[in-house]
Amino acid sequence: MTDAPLVVVEGLRKVYRSGPKEVVALRDVSFSVRAGELVAVRGRSGSGKTTLLNQIGGLDRPDAGRVVVDGREITSLPEDELLAVRRDVIGFVFQSFGLIPVLSAAENVGVPMRLRRTPVAEREARVRMLLALVGLEQHVNQRPYELSGGQRQRVAIARSLANRPRLLVADEPTGQLDSQTGRQIMELLRAVVRSEGVTALVATHDPSLMTLADRVLEISDGVVREAALT
Ligand code: ADP
Ligand code: MG
């Protein structure tokens, strides 16, 4: 772990407008994350976790403030450059896995490398390595519907690492899993942060992550504060 911040968030504000109604989802949010840290973002439903991760991951744009990821100010990038950052610098893991149903586990993990035109031999070698890393070497040819929820999330984690991202953004990755499987997925995330040297931001209300995280950020009504580690 170095001291250089991998993520810097400054004065982030996000307002959703639907008709005359306004919802302030993020209010002047500022914090930074050092390279190699695993940071949990904890807060009840509707507190702003997804909104925060979407601004940091470049999936949405804030109304004010800036986000810097690995030295790039992503909040000011044009759409095509932002697309490249999402493909090459950031890995995403979602609650609902987001796998392509007609593709095998190996093909799903290979998708980000195809988008980047990684040579076939290199791609296939990395797919094998990543599926072994997440404990699925026996399941490479199975499609998502032939896998359990926990196994699907393992495929999604392997896929998120395909292009060697600097930052992993995981939005309630255990939200659809039973507590024991959820714990295993959190332990896997903890392990890959170490082994792949990646930095991770994980939104969760799963208490088991709190003990695995280096830091916990508490979000309440769009306001983020540092929580004491228990
Ligand atoms: P969490 O992920 O913690 O459950 P969200 O970031 O999804 O919270 O939501 C934060 C607030 O913003 C909530 O009040 C939610 O209703 C509102 N919100 C989220 N997305 C939208 C949207 N696309 N349009 C309008 N309001 C939204
Ligand atoms: Mg959410």
Q: Describe it for me?
A:
With 230 residues, the chain is α/β, with parallel strands linked by helices. It folds into two domains: 155 residues, P-loop containing nucleotide triphosphate hydrolases (Rossmann fold); 65 residues, no CATH class. 33% of the residues lie in helices and 30% in strands. The strands form two sheets. Strands 6-7-8-3-9-10 form a six-stranded mixed beta sheet. A hairpin with a 2-residue loop joins strand 4 and strand 5. The longest helix is centred in the last third of the chain and has 17 residues. It is globular, with a radius of gyration of 17 Å. The model has no long low-confidence stretch (mean pLDDT 94). The structure holds adenosine-5'-diphosphate and magnesium ion. Magnesium ion binds next to helix 1.
In short:
Keywords: ATP-binding, Nucleotide-binding, Transport. The chain is of the alpha/beta class.
Q: What would the keywords be for this entry?
A:
230 residues, Rossmann fold, 2 domains, six-stranded mixed sheet, 7 helices, globular, binds adenosine-5'-diphosphate, binds magnesium ion, ATP binding, ATP-binding
pLDDT average, as an integer?
A: 94
Strand order in space, largest sheet? 6-7-8-3-9-10
Instruction: Report strand %.
Output: 25-35%
What oligomeric state best describes the polypeptide chains here?
single chain
What name goes with the CATH superfamily of the largest domain? P-loop containing nucleotide triphosphate hydrolases
- What is bound: which ligands? adenosine-5'-diphosphate, magnesium ion
Which class of secondary structure composition applies to the elements? alpha/beta
Query: Architecture of the largest domain, according to CATH?
Result: 3-Layer(aba) Sandwich
Give the beta-strand count. 10
Our count of domains comes out at 2
Major sheet, described briefly?
A: 6 strands, mixed
Order of helices and strands: EEEHEEHEHHHEHEHEE
**Shape assignment:** globular
Q: How many whole angstroms does the radius of gyration measure?
A: 17 Å
